[in-house]
Design a protein that fits this description.
Chain lengths: ~110, ~110
C-alpha cells in the first residue's frame, strides 16, 4: 500500500462547479498535512496546511479525518486558473521533517 | 526574496557524463531535499539533509551522490549519467522538525541521451 494515495483523475469540470478531492494516508502517527498545487512544468507550491478542525482559505476548504486517515480538499466556484495538479502531502518519520507526497490529482476546469 | 535557487534549469548529457546540480536557499532552513519527478511516478526522494553536516538516502539514491556544503547549499551529483536518470529534479528546503511545509526550487530538466 502506498503511503499517500490519491485518485489521479483527471477531473474535468465546468467553470463555477464545486469539486472535491480525497486522499488517504497509511501512517496513523502522521501529524502534519498539506495540499500543494503544481502547474504544468512548474514546481509544487504550498496551497494550504490542513488542520484537525478543518480550515478554509477563500474558495478552498480542507478537512482531516484522523479516524479514517483521509484528507479532503474542496474547491468551490472553480476558475479556469484552478486547472493544475493537486498533491496531498503528509509528514513521514516523526521529527525528521520529511514529507510524503501523493502522486497528485489533475483538475481541468473548462469554460 | 529568492527562496530556493536551482541551477541549471535545463541540461542535456550524454550517457556516462557527470554533472552536479546546484541548490541554494536563503531562508535559513535547516533541512534540504532532492526529488525527482517522472510521469506517473510522482515526486520521489533521492537524498535529504536534515541539518548541516548530515545526509541520508531517500527512496531512489542509486546513481547519485550529495554534498551539504553549508547551511545554504545542497548539491546533487550524477557520476555517470544514464538514460534512466532523465527526469525533472527539484530541490526543496524546510525548517526541519517543525512542519511548515517545503519550499521548492523551480527545477532542473535533465535529459540523458
Amino acid at each position: 500500500r502506498k503511503e499517500v494515495e490519491q485518485d489521479p483523475g483527471p477531473f474535468n469540470v465546468p467553470e463555477g462547479a464545486t469539486v472535491a478531492f480525497n486522499c488517504t494516508y497509511s501512517n496513523s502517527a502522521s501529524q502534519s498535512f498539506f495540499w500543494y498545487r503544481q502547474d504544468c512544468r512548474k514546481e509544487p507550491k504550498l496551497l494550504m496546511s490542513v488542520y484537525s478542525s478543518g480550515n478554509e482559505d477563500g474558495r478552498f476548504t480542507a478537512q482531516l479525518n484522523r479516524a479514517s486517515q483521509y484528507i479532503s480538499l474542496l474547491i468551490r466556484d472553480s476558475k479556469l486558473s484552478d486547472s493544475a495538479t493537486y498533491l496531498c502531502v503528509v509528514n513521514g518519520i516523526i521529527n525528521t521533517g520529511k514529507l510524503i507526497f501523493g502522486q497528485g490529482t489533475t483538475l481541468q476546469v473548462k469554460p | 526574496n529568492a527562496g530556493v535557487t536551482q541551477t541549471p534549469k535545463f541540461q542535456v548529457l550524454k550517457t556516462g557524463q557527470s554533472m552536479t546540480l546546484q541548490c541554494a536557499q536563503d531562508m535559513n532552513h535547516n533541512s534540504m531535499y532532492w526529488y525527482r519527478q517522472d510521469p506517473g511516478m510522482g515526486l520521489r526522494l533521492i537524498y535529504y539533509s536534515a541539518s548541516e553536516g548530515t545526509t541520508d538516502k531517500g527512496e531512489v539514491p542509486n546513481g547519485y551522490n550529495v554534498s551539504r556544503l553549508n547551511k545554504r547549499e545542497f548539491s546533487l551529483r550524477l557520476e555517470s549519467a544514464a538514460p534512466s536518470q532523465t527526469s525533472v529534479y527539484f530541490c526543496a528546503s524546510s525548517h526541519g522538525t517543525i512542519n511548515y511545509g517545503y519550499t521548492f526550487g523551480s527545477g532542473t530538466r535533465l535529459t540523458v541521451v
